[in-house]
Amino acid sequence: MPSWTREQEAAIYLRNADMLVSAAAGSGKTAVLVERIIQIVVQQRVPIQNILVVTYTNAAAGEMRERIEIAVSKAIEAEDDQDLKAFLIDQLRVLNRASIKTFHAFCMDIIRSHFQKINIDPSFRMLNETERTILIEEAIDSAFEKAYEAGEERFIYLVEAYSGNREDQKLREMIKQIYRFVMSQPYPMQWLENQVKAYRQEDHPLRKTWDELLLEQARTKVEGAFELIEEGLEICELPGGPLPYKETLLSDYNQFKNVDEAIASGHVKQLETAVLNFSFVRLKSIKKDEKELMDEVLVDTVKTQIRDKLLKKSIYESLMAPFKEKSMDRYFEEFERLGMALGMMKALVEAFDKTFMDLKNSKNVLDFNDLEHYAIQILEDDIIAGTYQNQFQYLFVDEYQDASSIQETILTRIKSPNNLFMVGDVKQSIYKFRLAEPALFLEKFKTYDQYDQILRQFEVETVHDLNPKLIGTHQIRIDLKKNFRTRTEILEAVNSLFSNMMSERLGEITYDDSAHLVGGTAFEAVGGPAVEIKVISKKAMRSEWDRATDDIEANEVDLDADADSDSDADVMSLGHLKTDEIEARTIARQIKSIIGKPIFFPKTQSWKPCTYKDIVILIRSFRSWQETFDSVFAEEGVPFYAESNSGYFDTLEIRLMIDYLKILDNPYQDISLMAVLRSPMYRFTIDELIHIRQQGTAGAYFYDQLGSILVQAEDAEILNGDLKQKVEFFLNQLEAIRRFATYHPIDDVILKILQDTQFLNYVSVMPGGVSRQANLKLLIERATQFKNSKIVSLTLFVQFYEQLSKTSGDMGVASSIGEADDVVRLMSIHKSKGLEFPVVMVAGLGRKFNLMDTHGDLIMHKHIGIGLSYVDVPIRAKSTSLVQWLLKEQLKIETLSEEMRVLYVALTRPVDRLYLFATVADAEKRSVKWQRGCSYYNLLTAGGFIDWILSVAPQKCEIIDPTTLIAIEQEATQTNQMSIEKWAILKQQSKDQVQAEIGLSEVYKHLNAPLPVPERIYEPQKIAVSDLKQKDFAFKAPALTQTPRFLIEKIPLTPAEKGTAMHKVLEKIDFTQTYTDKSLLDFVKQLVESRFLTDQEFEAIEISKIDQFLNSELGIRIKNERHYKETPFVIKVNEQLIQGIIDLYLETDKGLVLIDYKTDFVRESELQNVANRYRIQLDAYEMALESILNKPVVEKVIVFLNHNKAIGI
After folding, report:
1. How many CB atoms lie within 10 A of CB 15?
2. Pairwise pLDDT comparison (628 vs 420), residue with the higher score
3. Is the confidence at residue 122, as pLDDT, over 80?
């Protein structure tokens, strides 16, 4: 008999009440839930068929059923009462038919039992994702075709306002996005209609909600300002503090106080007035003799950190932002146009929904949305709802924090008084992307009576004494806080962290005593720390070579770089290394240091040597890190496996199979054809492909060239024997498989390819061969599903997979690793939920929070509504609407709240050891923020997890210098010379490239050998043009294969970073416009407001130099010619990918004019010499442009912006 805690016992035996069990991590909630069910069945003799248990996964339902079966079987063995034993045997017999299932499975039961109510065929089947994607595209096509035919003015406005360049794909995605969102509501179209009315009706309740939210968001900022001012005043009073600044801070306080009083008035117009009248006074100057007595750090903290950066640039600018852009009256005027636009969107959603439903009905299929909505429709019948209320004496909901409003509606219709038992942990609600609503849990958490209060109210001490007294309707909350999983030292760290961070405002629940984790299992003392925080600091440590080339590198952009990256982003280069590589290597070294060391296993109360399988690495999201960890761990000799939900389409074997299917469907696709020829299936070399291209008809498809060169070979020796045999073999095999594909389904065709080419056998001997084979088998399974959808076209299958790979339809690679395999596992934090591991290492804590949901033309929220960008079509001007401003702020808070809960899940997975890893640009600089503590505003403005963690425990981390991890080696081989001839040959565009507007970079992406060439494994496969140009310098430094070069800190900006800032302005500037000094300055300020430029970059921009360039002879020429900016390219030379971005080029009647900006600080007399150093760079640009556009480059110009000089080379 288990020894239950007092709270667990209450959760098991309490009756006659609706119950919410708030079960902390590791508190044994599943065991409690199962025991409660057993006691109800055994002690009350309630038939199992009168109990409903709903979960969120089939695995959870299966585990629950298995546990109940084991418990009932044990009860049968122990029972002497023959009548009870017979009853229990009957329950065991019908257990497989018991209602222990997912929400969707329960909804399916309702539909099959009452199909006539909704007029559907009961033999329906569930739509698989392959079919669903196809039907959605058909439905959206139909909705738009009808809209185009009708030609309503409001539809034309939508197309012009919200479509992308020359196509309506962006608008289509918006309609699908709205559809997905509204289908999470119990009554979708009613909800959507209500949002339209909110824009059209001045007295609509949502209008009041918007006003209240605007005031509340302003209040949060003002409270943050008060906290900062109070901090600043305290610093002013310290010994050595800047006391003269106190007067200025008090003035700031009065300004914010005026705003606070306007907020208190409850009128948004008063808030607008107060904000627009706000002004900062000049900081009081300090006399020289006084300043000498002051602490420079304290002075800088008040002046720079608190006042300039936080009060002015952070709080005030965010407070001002909505009012600076437009007046409140203007926002209100926009509602009419926005209501019209949203009304048309609603019409498109309804048309899409109807067509989608018709298509599903024609195939007699349902999707998961249909299950829930049909169930609600059926349960609206009181008689039917009553049958379920009578059937189920007890309802159980597992993981209630993940419930949605539509599921809550279903539960409400089938429950009876005092029979609902909900268990979960709102601190682990991390499925916002699945539209989970933790607010449902929180509402009950706040309103249900606490168990201890009920005991006091009825003056009893135990649950058994309480039950007889519970008469009528009761709602009771029980908190399970004892953790039976984790070492006490880790629990104490978690409590310390979240009690200082998690609140109703951020996290959506206060982490108070009721939330504190309490150790429930005995652990023997650990020798060292159970929790370690390791911060890798990439502080600038640059060589003379780095400094010498700063200005040059400022002009190059590596195409590998993430568009959203900055000094703390994932792609901070250290020579050839990136952040993920450095962090992976740090973790690998940490793993090797603990392998074989003792760790404690509480279930057996024993110490055992740590093995690889005892260790799991958790990460928020995989992004590009999985591949990096795979390669680094292989180098470090650490066995490794990553469990991923993405990356399937990027695997070599799947990419190649899709290419093969493409050329079966249409061999006149040169990109895919060359990829197949270069693959291990046929092993054509680059030189052989060049030879075929040279000998074939100029401009012809490569497939035609293969055929024609065989004919020519009969009359002339233009092919050697081996190459001729290769070409003949390929063409014969391709033709045979094409004939086979004409009469066979797609899954059989894939099998035929694998068998005839022996490709399946080939991948089996590659690294990860078992997983690669599994991926190919998964492709066959998908093809079988496609075949079963009655759509058998090879063309459609290829199109479907291409669409899936470009959108969010990617999936994980097939798993080939079992639980017993001794490997370190990398998995997402989401996947780890509910699991436990002896040793947990959390990686990527220095990465920035993903706030993408707060951006875009369309933002939605269940309670606030739909925010659309306002677009003035005649002048092509787009601006943020009022509701968008509100939603951006609200969704940021909700997103960060979920991120805090994600961190809680990660930190509550370990049993014995917890390691936290983060990489930052400069730990010393970043620590300024950490030392600010954990005020609400400081937490709200955090960049990533590590900012939260170290705001609570700034002194608890170990700073790691990454140079200790990197072996620096001199490159043994000389850089290969570029082969101009090979470029010239392979750059030729085929007809299908021109027709499809496919860039040359795609050809070379596919032409790249799928497998690394062993003898060149140490050469970089991709280099930037900035690396090429170094070959022309006289003071060449030794080349390094892994140079540990750090990014320089952002404040102050380096010359390189200043150059990048100038480039960014020229990237966005409209050369066709005529700018005044003021309009040019306003334009640059808009780039800051849109967050394209940082504040530091804005300060570095020299407006006068940009103005001089725009009005120069070349600037005027650009204005009058057709020009193109920021053209990226990737070209291949001797197996290396050369990449770069062309600043600007003109398209003239004579040819192309290539223009490149430089911000080098050099003497004017040296400009020509410096320009010549860039010759090889511009030669690469020239070849790339000519390859892509098939037009000659007739002029190459370097613009030295600091001198306003254009130098031809």
Report:
1. 18
2. 420
3. yes
